[in-house]
Amino acid sequence: MNLNKIRKDVAVVGAGMTIFARRLQETGKEMGWEAAKMALDEAGLTLKDIDAVIVGSAPDAFDGVHKKGEWLLDGAGGTNKPYMRVFTGGGTAVFAPIAGWWHVASGMFQRVLVVCEEKMSSVQPHVQSAFAHIWDPILDRPLKPNLVWIFAMEMQRYMYKYNVRYEDIALVAVKNKRNAVGHPCAQLADPNITLEDVINSEPMALPVRRLDISPPSDGASAIVLASEDVAYEHTDTPVWIDGVGWCIDTTMWTNRDLAFPKFVAKAAKMAYEMAGIKNPRQEIDFAEPYDPFDYKELQHLEGLLLAEPGEAAIMTREGKTQRDGEFPVCPSGGLLGVGNPIAAALGIKIGEVYWQLARKAGPRQVKKDVRTGVAQAWGDLMQFSSVVVMRRR
Amino acid sequence: MRDVVVLGIGSTAFTSQTPEVNWKELIYDAAVKAYTDAQIDPRRDVDSFVTCAEDFWEGFSIFDEFTPDQLGAALRPMMTVTGDGLHGLANAYMQIKSGIANIVVVEAHSKISELLTYEHVTELAFDPIYERPLSAEREVHPYYVAGLEMNLYLHATGTTEEQCAFVAVHNRRQALMNPLAPYGARIGLQEIFNSGYAFTPLKRWEIASRADGCIVFVLAAAEIARRLTKKPLVYIEGIGWSSESPWIAARSADAGYVRRAAQIAYRHAGITDPRRQIDVIEVEDRFAFKELQHLEALGLARPGEAGWLAQSGALGRDGELKVNLSGGSLGCGDLIEASGLQRALEIVLQLRGEAGARQVPNARVGVAQSWRGVPHGTGAVAVFARRD
């Protein structure tokens, strides 16, 4: 990476997000357009002003449509435009904006639209069946694994290695579901949820219980990115993408360190280097790490170098990661509270950091004055991470 | 402005089936060749990796999981583009232009011989409510769309079926000179007609057979590449991509997706008179008529003219336009998402002067074009050049 060569700075100038829920009435195309229109409206743009479109969506198996990117094309506003779909599993939520970043930073385009859509309710009886085909056909599939038990194993390893208590992990679910109360798109907001509710929820594959997991969901999110040359034409409060990073670990999950996510740390270091961040704990004001399971928020905070291994659980117990705490984490309500339509989590991660930094988060606005935020997503089979550092100037 | 060059290329041969290797080994094979050609160590020198793949072609739900190891990309920045090889090249190009990477590897492959239900998977690419029942419930092969598009093209331009058949004759013959190509053949116009209508007016032998293979490109910032190699540098002067409406009923007769993609690529490359400025041309020809349609969309022939050029022998090594000297998809096989990189590979070989028996003397500027196939209107165009 040669920082002197970054051609154009890139800003988020608008964002949109649909309600996250089971949405049987709408197609993926329709949800994509709903979110895209919101983002365009905020930036005061129409499709005519958009030079290129980037789309993100997780496995084609959800919809049973081959080349799903091509199918979603008109809903995302890509007709007769340069149109690109990138795919890094669950990491797509934060990766599609990174692809959008280089579309603009390279100098090729001035205004691009990034749309992420997911419709998981089409899979019957449950979306878990689509995940039956993400495994190595020879080594893994005969074991008939599913995601809940694979993550139970990872959670177990994390708790064992860093001596983390289940009760501290469950507090993440409580915090995020309460945070989501202020979010207009939230699926599982609950102002009254308690630690006992999580601990007493149905065991799925111990130590994972039902309320430790984010729900499958339908929804879409979108952002408009603009080059430094035009950003202020569209908003007074552009939020700049100052650092991007991504990293993938080996396919062989049995060979990986399941307690500490090295690939998250590598992606974070790449993004921090680009953003000129030397001491992330001091220079970053709040974080939106990926939290499809409550223990993942903790593990990701540690991977993002915002806590020592095992420390994130203590920070949670001490209330530091609350919205009004000294280091707010998932002020949006996260995937646990707002919902988890895989790629569409763009709106909870990049979208939330944008709204917080532009001071447009309404009732979710964090108390302290925030200038630098980090968003992260995690994908594939516990192996990929994308990280974005954003700033207000 | 940072320039982007091709530092290394690697390719397997293309064949109708590859039972001797699995897909990871196929990719590894091409990757090792590319790294050797570029004289780099992927674990040390490469900043970012790109794979071009679609889940359903591969038989996985999240194929991105399976991409890193065979390229040497574990614990490195790596991504999947669900698009053609040229779409992957475009992302690598932008990563280098933006400054975030100096050396980027792009891989695209086809292991399509392992897919036993090709037409049923292709069927799944149609809109499930409005379009899919047209073929699925009637058990019609989804390539009927290609027949309809050919009909539209013939009517719009006055091109004849015979002119289209010339393309198949030429490309299959041209493939005899390409050691990578499996489908070289010396066949005549009459044999194309005798092959019969597959999807009227499209004839059986005007359809490219599928093939397995893998191609890997190493791209680099020009200032870095100059330090690493003494080989002639091939610059990517411009790259563009575009998609038209996904609805088959809205498909254009003139391959508007290529026209728009070419506008972007030509603008960056400073191409104002493509017919005069471009020395070698590789266009997508999964169906013979597509070569003609795409040549016109690239501005290399006027609408309706490409057929006459084919008929008069102007599209060949000895003709005015050096088109698909690699044999194209008809000769090399339909390499699915690797088709675009196969085109780019031929252009780079030509510009480097490494194209062997098919070498065009003093080739300095080349264009590669891709199309993602039935039922989509998505394509990309890349312009390559020597500057020395």
Record the SSE blueprint.
The complex is a heterodimer of chains A (393) and B (388).
Chain A: E1 10-17, H1 28-43, E2 52-56, H2 68-71, E3 83-87, H3 92-105, E4 111-119, H4 147-162, H5 166-179, H6 195-199, E5 203-205, E6 208-209, E7 218-227, H7 231-234, E8 239-248, H8 262-275, H9 280-283, E9 286-288, H10 294-303, H11 311-317, H12 334-338, H13 346-357, E10 372-379, E11 384-391
Chain B: E1 4-11, H1 23-38, H2 42-45, E2 48-52, H3 55-58, E3 78-81, H4 85-98, E4 103-110, H5 118-123, H6 132-136, H7 144-157, H8 161-174, H9 189-194, E5 197-199, E6 202-203, E7 213-221, H10 222-228, E8 234-243, H11 256-269, H12 274-277, E9 280-282, H13 288-297, H14 305-311, E10 322-323, H15 328-332, H16 339-352, E11 365-371, E12 378-386
Parallel strand pairs in B: 2-3, 2-4, 9-10, 9-11
Antiparallel strand pairs in B: 1-7, 1-8, 4-7, 5-6, 8-12, 11-12
Description:
- The complex is a heterodimer of chains A (393) and B (388).
- Chain A has one domain: 3-Layer(aba) Sandwich (Peroxisomal Thiolase, Chain A, domain 1), CATH 3.40.47.
- Chain A is built from 13 helices and eleven strands.
- Chain A has a nine-stranded mixed β-sheet.
- Chain A is 32% helix and 18% strand.
- Chain B is an alpha/beta fold and 388 residues long.
- Chain B has a domain at 4-115 and 210-228: Thiolase/Chalcone synthase (Peroxisomal Thiolase, Chain A, domain 1).
- Helix content of chain B is 37%, strand content 18%.
- In chain B, the strands form two sheets. In chain B, strands 3-2-4-7-1-8-12-11-9-10 form a ten-stranded mixed β-sheet. In chain B, strands 5-6 form a two-stranded antiparallel ribbon.
- Chains A and B meet through α2, β3, α3, β8 and α8 of A and β3, α4, α5, β8 and α11 of B.
Which features does this protein show?
heterodimer, A: 393 residues, alpha/beta, Peroxisomal Thiolase, Chain A, domain 1, nine-stranded mixed beta sheet, two-stranded antiparallel sheet, 32% helix, globular, B: 388 residues, ten-stranded mixed beta sheet, two-stranded antiparallel ribbon, 16 helices, 37% helix, 18% strand
